[in-house]
Amino acid sequence: MALRWKNTLKDHHVTDEAAFLNRRQLMGGAAAGVGLASMGAGAGFAAGETLEPSAYEDITQYNNFYEFGTGKDDPARYAGDLTTKPWSVEIGGMVDKPGRYAFEDILKAMTIEERIYRFRCVEAWSMVVPWNGFELADLLDMAGVQSGAKYVAFETAVLPDEMPGVRFPVLDWPYVEGLRLDEAMHPLTMMATGIYGKDIPNQNGAPLRLVVPWKYGFKSIKSIVKITLTDTQPPTSWNKANAREYGFYSNVNPELDHPRWSQASERVVGGGLFAKRIPTLKLNGYEEEVGSLYADMTLQETF
Ligand code: MTE
């Protein structure tokens, strides 16, 4: 897989490479042998500011993946059983080339890049994750989006033998999510296949999961098996579970509190005794990049 950088993000958004490489070496050569250049980028913060990625251990041991249980450590404990090879993604609906795409074939057609994004859960905790992956737009282009398509629907695998959580009706399985087509085609929207230069661990959504950095984390659906282009807004799991608390858009917004807690600040995961709270940024700090997508909408409408 060749490395490409599209330069969609500005120079000052690129994380200090030396600091990041240093960090990776400290991690025991996590990126060794992967053949990726270090081109981390995190958008949406002031010039000169760098995003310090969270520790690999925090990113991979403090998770939400209800198919494996509702505890933060359940995914790391139980997701090891998930069979991710072979894997395929069924792409259908309003596309020119519907079909079942083998994960290997998708990877061959895509260019893997590395991006460092803020990640903000609706539960008011956050991390900074160095993802590897490709732009969702490239995958959708491969399938050929037909004119008239307005939304993209996503679906996670349901494997009761391997996912202990789906034996309980915690959510209406399969986990489903959706984006407006322009959100899906935005260059910040990616399909992640790795973290810190290694294959993405099962608990983080192997072998491929969505990452939409300006939305609450639950929009970033894991272990995707189905993508459907439609002209109607698709149902989404958390909205189905509690429409009053979780909207379709779910853009990060410090000015719009969750009915049961404030969204004005967030707890930075990791750091132990030094764990801190920081102010939450509008659109998670990506307002410059994606604010125009919501120019015609009110605060309440992007809930
Ligand atoms: N995708 C599926 N299929 N099932 C889930 O339970 N949890 C969501 C999201 N994607 C979830 C999911 C939530 S609430 C969050 S915050 C993120 O995954 C957590 O991603 P992480 O564990 O990689 O930090």
List the helices and strands and how they pair.
Blueprint: H1 17-26, H2 56-61, H3 74-78, E1 88-93, E2 99-102, H4 103-109, E3 113-120, E4 125-135, H5 136-143, E5 151-156, E6 176-180, H6 181-184, E7 190-195, E8 198-199, E9 209-211, E10 224-230, H7 237-241, E11 265-268, E12 277-279, H8 287-290
Parallel strand pairs: 1-10, 4-11
Antiparallel strand pairs: 1-2, 3-4, 4-7, 5-6, 5-10, 7-8, 7-9, 11-12
The structure holds ligand MTE.
Helicity, as a percent range: 10-25%
CATH architecture label name: Alpha-Beta Complex
End-to-end Cα distance? 38 Å
* Assembly status: single chain
- Count of separate structural domains: 1
Number of helices: 8
The stretches of 5 or more residues where confidence is low (pLDDT under 50) are 1-48
Question: Average pLDDT value?
Answer: 88
- In the CATH scheme, the class would be Alpha Beta
